[in-house]
Amino acid sequence: MTSIFMLFLAAMTSNGSVWPAFLGAGAKHNSAQSVPLNWSPTENVAWQVELPGYGQSSPVIWDSHIFATSVEGPNKDTYHTVCIDSASGKEKWRKNIANSFPVKNSHYVSRAAPTPVVDANRVVSFFESGDCIAYSHDGDELWRRNLGKDDGPLTAEFGLGASPCQTESHVYVLLEHDGPSCLLAIDKATGATNWKAERTPRRSWSSPAVMEIDGTTQIVVSSAGRVDGYDAASGDLLWTFTDIGGNTGTTPIESGNGRFLIGASAGRNGEDAGSAADSNCLLQVSRENDEWTVKREWIAEKASPSWASPIIHEGLAYWINRAGVVYCFDAESGEQVYANRIKQSSWATPLAVGGRIYFFGQQGLVTVLAAGRDFEILAENETWTENTLPAQTPLAEETTEERRSAAAMFSKPTLYGVAVADGSLILRVGNCLIAIGEQSSDK
């Protein structure tokens, strides 16, 4: 059995919800009936819990345990891993470690951006300093690594953002920054590095993905002008695709049979507009004998996301761009089905559940579309108001006008990520988790 299948089998034999990694990689299937359609900031909020400090990571779930990470302190002094009970929202435990490489806590850099991974035995938290730590589900420390010391120093003006991915036995950590970069395979039981693949310096925050391609478990990395496939067991580079650009913030999304979606952005100042135009696409990886080939099957014309990865569902592919335009394409032919605007753009990747597609607006408006070839809004749900969120700890003022402008934009509450527990959407805002369910609690 492949390591991917074994991880999936472990998830399916769990007694409860499983959302084990960034974008739910390896999650149990959820039916439309298990996820709410309508809510408001005062109705169907099962619970809301304030987290220490601030974080841009998504929650992960195993059974009744929800895990979230955050950073706190004027120099990002302390990293937290918090375990929350999925039914009540009560905190089960909280562990913290000192940041091995403190830097100024700023709106302009990543803040606990990488999402942890969890399996039946442990949760592994990775932070942008290179600090990587594994805990049992009860909060016992299992091992700890300082990847910034072992494989650094990590020099990144805007911080690191790539979330780890995992197989049954290993967690794969992408360290991309202004210095010599790498992809690491770390043994989940011991914390030891199994292999290290060297990569050239680059500024990218996209996360790798585990895929099964032609019988080979691969780690696929889409990042800053390249898409690479590595053998998950050995770290050997199997294939590379370089006719691409602007792919610095989204995760490759598997479509099956060696096919996957790529997202690419024009960049903060439009610096990648030309290359990104042809880089939102579907790639096909194939093998004949011992030769791997990569082909761009079709291009998602005009679709250019910010941080939200494209998704594929029931034969259709969906992108949302920075202006809030949802693009729908036929996943086989690439023919555009529709392009319609919703009220907010999304940083969190959309979620497909049954006959619905959930788009998580950056400012908290969640738009639910009907899955299919017709653009139909089923619901528009506000998740918070100014008075329903905990106050954010103010940060020190930025020293340049450019950074002050960015801080003004990024200081507002942002919906960063989502996970699905039985009957609830678990939404991550910087300093809290919000559980949206069909039943309200007496928290």
Short description:
The protein is mainly β. The protein is built from four helices and 33 strands. It has helices at 3-12, 147-150, 273-276, 401-410, and strands at 18-19, 45-50, 60-62, 65-72, 78-85, 91-98, 117-118, 123-126, 131-135, 141-146, 165-166, 170-175, 181-187, 193-199, 209-213, 216-223, 226-231, 237-241, 253-256, 259-262, 281-288, 291-299, 311-313, 316-320, 325-330, 336-341, 351-353, 356-360, 365-370, 377-382, 415-421, 424-429, 432-437.
List the helices and strands and how they pair.
Layout: H1 3-12, E1 18-19, E2 45-50, E3 60-62, E4 65-72, E5 78-85, E6 91-98, E7 117-118, E8 123-126, E9 131-135, E10 141-146, H2 147-150, E11 165-166, E12 170-175, E13 181-187, E14 193-199, E15 209-213, E16 216-223, E17 226-231, E18 237-241, E19 253-256, E20 259-262, H3 273-276, E21 281-288, E22 291-299, E23 311-313, E24 316-320, E25 325-330, E26 336-341, E27 351-353, E28 356-360, E29 365-370, E30 377-382, H4 401-410, E31 415-421, E32 424-429, E33 432-437
Antiparallel strand pairs: 1-3, 2-33, 3-4, 4-5, 5-6, 7-8, 8-9, 9-10, 11-12, 12-13, 13-14, 15-16, 16-17, 17-18, 19-20, 20-21, 21-22, 23-24, 24-25, 25-26, 27-28, 28-29, 29-30, 31-32, 32-33
